[in-house]
Amino acid sequence: MLFKAPSAFQIAYSLIFLKSVDVINWGTDKASPPTFGYDCIPFPHALCLSSQLTNLNLQNTSLSGAIPDEIGSLTALRYLNLSSNKLSGDIPLSLFSLVQLERVSLGETRITGPIPSEIGQLSNLTSLGLFNMCLTGPIPSEIGNLKSLQHLSLFGNNLSGEIPATLWDLKSLLRLHIQCNRSLSGSIPPGIANLSLLEELDISECSITGQIPREIGLLSQLTWLWLNDNQLEGPIPKEMANLQRLKCAEMKGNLSLTCDFEFSPLEL
Protein backbone atom coordinates (compact mmCIF):
# COMPACT_ATOMS: atom_id res chain seq x y z
CA MET A 1 0.00 0.00 0.00
CA LEU A 2 1.61 3.27 -1.17
CA PHE A 3 0.69 6.42 0.73
CA LYS A 4 1.63 9.73 -0.91
CA ALA A 5 1.76 13.22 0.52
CA PRO A 6 -1.44 14.75 1.93
CA SER A 7 -2.26 18.42 1.68
CA ALA A 8 -0.79 19.17 5.12
CA PHE A 9 1.91 17.35 7.03
CA GLN A 10 0.12 17.51 10.38
CA ILE A 11 -2.52 15.12 9.09
CA ALA A 12 -0.10 12.36 10.05
CA TYR A 13 -1.22 12.75 13.65
CA SER A 14 -4.77 11.73 12.81
CA LEU A 15 -4.06 8.78 10.53
CA ILE A 16 -5.71 5.91 12.35
CA PHE A 17 -4.78 3.52 9.54
CA LEU A 18 -1.01 4.16 9.84
CA LYS A 19 -0.48 0.69 11.23
CA SER A 20 -1.33 -0.79 7.81
CA VAL A 21 0.88 1.55 5.74
CA ASP A 22 4.09 0.04 4.39
CA VAL A 23 5.40 2.89 2.17
CA ILE A 24 5.41 6.62 2.98
CA ASN A 25 6.96 8.68 0.21
CA TRP A 26 6.53 12.36 1.06
CA GLY A 27 10.06 13.41 0.15
CA THR A 28 11.27 15.62 -2.67
CA ASP A 29 14.66 16.27 -4.17
CA LYS A 30 16.65 18.92 -2.30
CA ALA A 31 16.56 21.15 -5.41
CA SER A 32 12.77 21.33 -5.13
CA PRO A 33 10.76 23.42 -2.67
CA PRO A 34 10.01 21.55 0.58
CA THR A 35 7.06 19.19 0.18
CA PHE A 36 4.80 21.00 2.64
CA GLY A 37 6.02 24.57 2.30
CA TYR A 38 6.62 25.13 6.01
CA ASP A 39 9.75 26.54 7.61
CA CYS A 40 9.85 24.11 10.50
CA ILE A 41 7.93 20.90 11.30
CA PRO A 42 8.58 18.61 14.27
CA PHE A 43 9.11 14.96 13.45
CA PRO A 44 5.60 13.40 13.53
CA HIS A 45 5.79 10.75 16.24
CA ALA A 46 2.64 9.15 14.86
CA LEU A 47 4.66 7.78 11.97
CA CYS A 48 6.37 5.47 14.43
CA LEU A 49 3.05 3.65 14.93
CA SER A 50 3.29 2.11 11.49
CA SER A 51 4.63 -1.29 12.45
CA GLN A 52 4.51 -2.58 8.85
CA LEU A 53 6.39 0.38 7.37
CA THR A 54 9.24 -0.71 5.08
CA ASN A 55 10.00 2.57 3.25
CA LEU A 56 10.04 6.02 4.86
CA ASN A 57 11.08 8.94 2.65
CA LEU A 58 10.84 12.36 4.29
CA GLN A 59 13.64 14.04 2.34
CA ASN A 60 13.33 17.84 2.16
CA THR A 61 10.13 18.14 4.19
CA SER A 62 11.29 20.87 6.62
CA LEU A 63 11.58 18.46 9.53
CA SER A 64 13.20 19.96 12.61
CA GLY A 65 14.18 18.86 16.09
CA ALA A 66 15.50 15.46 17.09
CA ILE A 67 14.74 12.10 15.54
CA PRO A 68 12.52 10.48 18.21
CA ASP A 69 13.59 7.33 20.03
CA GLU A 70 10.30 5.80 18.93
CA ILE A 71 11.76 5.33 15.46
CA GLY A 72 13.11 2.08 16.88
CA SER A 73 9.53 0.75 16.75
CA LEU A 74 9.65 0.55 12.95
CA THR A 75 11.05 -2.96 13.00
CA ALA A 76 10.14 -3.73 9.36
CA LEU A 77 11.92 -0.64 7.99
CA ARG A 78 14.31 -1.22 5.08
CA TYR A 79 14.67 2.26 3.56
CA LEU A 80 15.00 5.49 5.55
CA ASN A 81 15.64 8.91 4.00
CA LEU A 82 15.53 11.94 6.31
CA SER A 83 18.08 13.99 4.37
CA SER A 84 17.91 17.71 3.52
CA ASN A 85 16.04 18.67 6.68
CA LYS A 86 16.69 20.77 9.79
CA LEU A 87 16.97 17.81 12.11
CA SER A 88 19.30 18.21 15.10
CA GLY A 89 20.53 16.30 18.12
CA ASP A 90 22.34 12.97 18.12
CA ILE A 91 21.45 9.90 16.08
CA PRO A 92 19.16 7.92 18.42
CA LEU A 93 20.58 4.55 19.45
CA SER A 94 17.18 2.97 18.83
CA LEU A 95 17.78 3.44 15.11
CA PHE A 96 20.45 0.77 15.24
CA SER A 97 17.98 -1.83 16.44
CA LEU A 98 16.32 -1.73 12.99
CA VAL A 99 18.33 -4.64 11.66
CA GLN A 100 16.27 -4.93 8.44
CA LEU A 101 17.56 -1.56 7.21
CA GLU A 102 19.22 -1.67 3.79
CA ARG A 103 19.51 2.02 2.90
CA VAL A 104 19.85 4.99 5.26
CA SER A 105 20.36 8.66 4.43
CA LEU A 106 20.50 11.36 7.10
CA GLY A 107 22.69 13.71 5.06
CA GLU A 108 22.45 17.50 4.89
CA THR A 109 20.95 17.88 8.35
CA ARG A 110 22.14 19.50 11.58
CA ILE A 111 22.56 16.21 13.40
CA THR A 112 25.53 16.22 15.78
CA GLY A 113 27.53 13.84 17.92
CA PRO A 114 29.55 10.75 17.06
CA ILE A 115 28.75 7.84 14.78
CA PRO A 116 27.75 5.25 17.39
CA SER A 117 29.56 1.93 17.44
CA GLU A 118 26.11 0.32 17.23
CA ILE A 119 26.22 1.09 13.50
CA GLY A 120 27.83 -2.33 13.18
CA GLN A 121 24.50 -3.98 14.03
CA LEU A 122 22.99 -2.94 10.67
CA SER A 123 24.56 -5.82 8.78
CA ASN A 124 22.05 -5.61 5.89
CA LEU A 125 23.01 -2.06 4.90
CA THR A 126 23.93 -1.54 1.26
CA SER A 127 23.94 2.28 1.37
CA LEU A 128 24.80 4.65 4.23
CA GLY A 129 24.67 8.43 3.77
CA LEU A 130 25.83 10.52 6.72
CA PHE A 131 27.17 13.48 4.73
CA ASN A 132 27.23 17.26 5.22
CA MET A 133 26.22 16.99 8.85
CA CYS A 134 27.88 18.02 12.13
CA LEU A 135 29.22 14.61 13.15
CA THR A 136 32.35 14.44 15.29
CA GLY A 137 34.71 11.82 16.62
CA PRO A 138 36.19 8.79 14.87
CA ILE A 139 34.74 6.44 12.30
CA PRO A 140 33.94 3.43 14.50
CA SER A 141 35.79 0.22 13.73
CA GLU A 142 32.44 -1.59 13.86
CA ILE A 143 31.68 -0.16 10.43
CA GLY A 144 33.68 -3.12 9.18
CA ASN A 145 30.72 -5.35 10.11
CA LEU A 146 28.72 -3.93 7.20
CA LYS A 147 29.82 -6.56 4.71
CA SER A 148 27.02 -5.80 2.23
CA LEU A 149 27.77 -2.06 2.06
CA GLN A 150 28.13 -0.72 -1.49
CA HIS A 151 27.84 3.04 -0.99
CA LEU A 152 29.38 4.87 1.97
CA SER A 153 29.21 8.67 2.22
CA LEU A 154 30.63 10.33 5.34
CA PHE A 155 31.94 13.51 3.69
CA GLY A 156 31.53 17.04 4.96
CA ASN A 157 31.62 16.38 8.70
CA ASN A 158 34.09 17.01 11.51
CA LEU A 159 35.23 13.41 11.86
CA SER A 160 38.65 12.86 13.41
CA GLY A 161 41.14 10.15 14.27
CA GLU A 162 42.57 7.47 12.03
CA ILE A 163 40.55 5.72 9.34
CA PRO A 164 39.82 2.31 10.89
CA ALA A 165 41.58 -0.65 9.30
CA THR A 166 38.23 -2.44 9.12
CA LEU A 167 37.04 0.04 6.51
CA TRP A 168 39.39 -1.54 3.98
CA ASP A 169 37.72 -4.92 4.50
CA LEU A 170 34.38 -3.85 2.99
CA LYS A 171 34.76 -5.88 -0.18
CA SER A 172 31.33 -4.96 -1.59
CA LEU A 173 32.05 -1.22 -1.73
CA LEU A 174 31.45 0.52 -5.04
CA ARG A 175 31.65 4.13 -3.84
CA LEU A 176 33.58 5.44 -0.84
CA HIS A 177 33.33 9.16 -0.09
CA ILE A 178 34.89 10.38 3.17
CA GLN A 179 36.32 13.68 1.93
CA CYS A 180 36.22 17.05 3.66
CA ASN A 181 36.95 15.79 7.16
CA ARG A 182 40.04 17.84 7.93
CA SER A 183 40.95 15.97 11.13
CA LEU A 184 40.59 12.51 9.60
CA SER A 185 44.06 10.97 9.50
CA GLY A 186 45.94 7.77 8.81
CA SER A 187 47.41 6.31 5.66
CA ILE A 188 46.19 4.32 2.66
CA PRO A 189 47.16 0.72 3.46
CA PRO A 190 48.04 -2.12 1.08
CA GLY A 191 44.72 -3.60 2.19
CA ILE A 192 43.00 -1.20 -0.20
CA ALA A 193 43.39 -4.08 -2.66
CA ASN A 194 40.46 -5.74 -0.84
CA LEU A 195 38.12 -3.19 -2.44
CA SER A 196 38.32 -4.85 -5.84
CA LEU A 197 34.84 -3.64 -6.91
CA LEU A 198 35.48 0.01 -6.04
CA GLU A 199 34.50 2.53 -8.73
CA GLU A 200 34.83 5.84 -6.85
CA LEU A 201 37.22 6.78 -4.05
CA ASP A 202 37.29 10.26 -2.53
CA ILE A 203 39.54 10.94 0.47
CA SER A 204 40.35 14.53 -0.52
CA GLU A 205 40.71 17.41 1.96
CA CYS A 206 41.60 15.23 4.94
CA SER A 207 44.93 14.71 6.73
CA ILE A 208 46.07 11.48 5.08
CA THR A 209 49.83 10.87 5.25
CA GLY A 210 52.39 8.48 3.83
CA GLN A 211 52.74 7.08 0.34
CA ILE A 212 50.18 5.75 -2.10
CA PRO A 213 50.54 1.95 -2.01
CA ARG A 214 51.20 0.12 -5.24
CA GLU A 215 48.22 -2.13 -4.46
CA ILE A 216 45.98 0.69 -5.64
CA GLY A 217 46.82 -0.57 -9.13
CA LEU A 218 44.74 -3.68 -8.41
CA LEU A 219 41.47 -1.72 -8.30
CA SER A 220 40.55 -2.60 -11.86
CA GLN A 221 37.04 -1.06 -11.65
CA LEU A 222 38.22 2.32 -10.36
CA THR A 223 36.88 5.19 -12.46
CA TRP A 224 37.24 8.28 -10.25
CA LEU A 225 39.95 8.95 -7.68
CA TRP A 226 40.35 12.05 -5.51
CA LEU A 227 43.30 12.21 -3.11
CA ASN A 228 43.97 15.95 -3.37
CA ASP A 229 44.69 18.29 -0.45
CA ASN A 230 46.22 15.77 1.94
CA GLN A 231 49.76 15.19 3.17
CA LEU A 232 50.73 12.39 0.80
CA GLU A 233 54.32 12.14 -0.40
CA GLY A 234 56.69 10.04 -2.43
CA PRO A 235 56.35 8.52 -5.89
CA ILE A 236 53.02 7.72 -7.45
CA PRO A 237 53.16 3.96 -8.06
CA LYS A 238 53.57 2.87 -11.65
CA GLU A 239 50.94 0.21 -11.06
CA MET A 240 48.32 2.95 -11.41
CA ALA A 241 48.90 2.78 -15.15
CA ASN A 242 47.04 -0.56 -15.01
CA LEU A 243 43.79 1.21 -14.18
CA GLN A 244 42.24 1.20 -17.64
CA ARG A 245 38.84 2.53 -16.50
CA LEU A 246 40.25 5.52 -14.61
CA LYS A 247 39.02 8.85 -15.97
CA CYS A 248 40.44 11.21 -13.36
CA ALA A 249 43.05 10.96 -10.59
CA GLU A 250 43.12 14.28 -8.71
CA MET A 251 46.18 14.59 -6.46
CA LYS A 252 46.93 18.30 -6.24
CA GLY A 253 47.72 19.96 -2.93
CA ASN A 254 49.80 17.20 -1.32
CA LEU A 255 53.25 17.45 0.26
CA SER A 256 55.61 16.11 -2.38
CA LEU A 257 54.08 13.59 -4.73
CA THR A 258 56.11 12.80 -7.82
CA CYS A 259 55.38 10.88 -11.01
CA ASP A 260 58.02 9.50 -13.38
CA PHE A 261 55.72 7.90 -15.92
CA GLU A 262 53.13 9.19 -18.36
CA PHE A 263 49.61 8.87 -17.00
CA SER A 264 46.92 10.97 -18.71
CA PRO A 265 44.18 10.83 -16.01
CA LEU A 266 46.58 12.25 -13.41
CA GLU A 267 46.16 15.81 -12.15
CA LEU A 268 49.18 16.58 -10.01
Give the SSE map.
Blueprint: E1 2-4, E2 23-25, E3 41-42, E4 55-57, E5 63-66, E6 79-81, E7 86-88, E8 103-105, E9 112-113, E10 127-129, E11 134-137, E12 151-153, E13 158-162, E14 175-177, E15 183-187, E16 200-202, E17 207-210, E18 224-226, E19 231-235, E20 248-250, E21 256-258, E22 266-267
Parallel strand pairs: 1-2, 2-4, 3-5, 4-6, 5-7, 6-8, 8-10, 9-11, 10-12, 11-13, 12-14, 13-15, 14-16, 15-17, 16-18, 17-19, 18-20, 19-21, 20-22
Description:
With about 270 residues, the protein is mainly beta. The chain is built from no helices and 22 strands. About 35% of the residues are buried. Residues about 1-10 have low confidence and may be disordered.
Key attributes of the depicted protein:
single chain, seven-stranded parallel β-sheet, 268 residues
Mind describing the biggest β-sheet?
12 strands, parallel
Q: Please list the strands of the largest sheet in the order they lie side by side.
A: 1-2-4-6-8-10-12-14-16-18-20-22
Radius of gyration, in angstroms, nearest whole number: 20 Å
Structural class: mainly beta
- β-strand percent reads 25-35%
Number of helices, counting only DSSP H or I runs of 4 residues or more: 0
What is the share of helical residues? under 10%
Poorly predicted runs are 1-8
